[in-house]
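Can anyone check this?
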Amino acid sequence: MLKSFVQYLVAGLLTLPGAALAAGTVQLPVTSPTACFDGNGNPRDCVVGLAWPDPRFTSNANGTVTDGLTGLTWSKHANAPSHALPNEPLNACPNAETDMIWLDALDFIKCLNAKNHAGFSDWRLPNLNELESMVNSDAADTSAWLNANGFGFGPGLPNTQVQPRQYWTSTSDASDIGVPVISAASAWDVDLVKGDFPFSNLKNGVKRNVWPVRGVSTAPAQLWRTGQAVCYDDIGDSRLCTGTGEDGEKLAGAAWPTPRFLHNIGMTFALDRVSGLIWTTDTQTPGSRGDCPDMGLNVTWLEALSHVACLNAHAFLGRTDWRLPNRKELHSLADYSTGIPALTVGHPFEDRAGLTFWSATSNASAPNEAWVASLFDGSLSSAGKAATLPVWPVSGPDLLPPDLAITQGNMTTKVARQIISGTVEAGATVTVTNNGGAPAIASVTDGTWAFTIDPLADGVNNITVSATDFSQNIKTAAISITLDTGVPGLTMNPVTDLTNRKSHTLSGTVEAGTTVAVAVGATAVPVTLDNTGTNWSAVIPALAEGANTITVTATDAAGNTATLPLTTITLDTIPPVTTATPAPGNYTDSVAVTMATEAGSTIHYTADGTPVTTSSPVYSAPIRLAATTTTPFTVQFMAVDKAGNAEPVKNAAYLIHLGCDLNGDNKVDVRDALKALQISVGMFSATPNEMIRGDVGPLVNGKPNPNGVIDLADALVILQRGVGLVSPW
């Protein structure tokens, strides 16, 4: 705003430097890279910000210089350049290498673009933030410092250097818009000696120097917009921006977030989302009266520093990182689209008129002075450190993301309602997003957070957890929770239901990621999975005799189970027992040997004296042993049951005598009948063999009917057989 000198003094020597960038949209650099001073002008430690690159400026071969701090490109010829390089012809732009009124300055830039100055046609008159960024608060004369760092064509061509005077910016002074009579007829300029802009000047009333800039501001210290989005002519009326080259047309710098300021619940401090700085909402030396006695007062510069130290000692508003802001930090608050105060509409601060505040930055040209900023219109000046002004504390920027952890352990579940939880930095908010859906707010209590997902989707749920602290730093963590309600696949290869082997191996397939449990009765059996995790096996070391019940169960990571039908394996290690009937002994003519063993067993036998094996004939009917002469038979036999148990080989000896042959000549004739008659009448006593062969009569159904003696009936049967009347049996 255009001010009288009296207004300037009453305002308290208002001034404020430009800012760079912070933890929000931009990050602010250090204001005084090398020198800071106390109230007596003695050196002291500086408040640290983003460090300047070294060297800061790079001189290009085309007549331009790049600022490594802001990324902007400036004309090396810094005084309404008439040419880009010393050996180039003059560009014939009006007012070259002179000062000019504001509208002529805008026209001069248009001429440079038409002439393709230094090979570019996108030059502009810098806005207030851009020109202020070139001020070195450590230098008593910024212009001399700039000339020593690459600008101008050397001392021999002084008109090409940065001039020790004020330079126009493209930013109008709109602080009085809406106030009767006064309008935006003034524009801001910056004194490139001291680095201040204590008041604006009429656009058609004074002449200032011109220094073109181009490019887009980038990291590390990207500049931000001034807030001005309207263009004004030389009498202060608004006009169409197209083609004017004004700040309102170019909108150079990072855009402001909306809303710009976020306040805490108690509305005691607020975050500037442009710079990332945190400011107290009480702007007039805030504090607690019982702790810090200067609360609410205007104080000297040293008292301002002490007051901030007191705030930290008593953890004012729960923080211990308050400080007196430097000049760039104060300047960063100004909204140059308005005034009284020059703060964004809707701001949460108590300053409603635009006070002038102390900064922590000393004036290098007068170390007993410090820079002050007026939020009346955003102007910047210096004041003696013995003057009294209010303190507006600041903290931050907080560049660190908040602490965040997920402590939930089970990432696979069969329950659709799942609670996830973890820890988070105090004061941060936590949101949870599932499978890219809308974020939902988690509950936070005493540094822990929890959130219930209900329901989970079938399959994989990709969950993102985000923590946002007051400074809008964000940290994210991701987990995947799989909802699995299906029964896991499980098979077992066929097993025998009867065995005589005590050790037995089971095997089968299973769904990957699943565990298998095998039990014999109540006894668990270890299970082995192959390297694919889909084939399992279990060795039963010793079955119990008799029936063994086998249980096989698979459990997946979600806890779903599959159980196969019960399987029974019977262990039978006891061989069968075979009996032969009749008992071994002497028999006449023939005998039918009958064998019996346990059900289901197979009897193998031989009757010809050869050893019996499992390849020998299988018993299926009585074995008939018959002879025409007295013949010994040995029947060998063994039984093998279904389990494969084989009994020891048994032998049964049968001696088959020729029936009715009493004299042992292996034939039956009248002599045998005579011998039987003699025995029957007591002439001879019968030997055991004679009793076997001769005790045959009387016959019953053609078969012998022994009665324990040899009598006339026996003699008659023997005679009949000898003469062919009776057939052998």
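Reply from J.R.: I decoded it. The first helix runs from residue 5 to 10.
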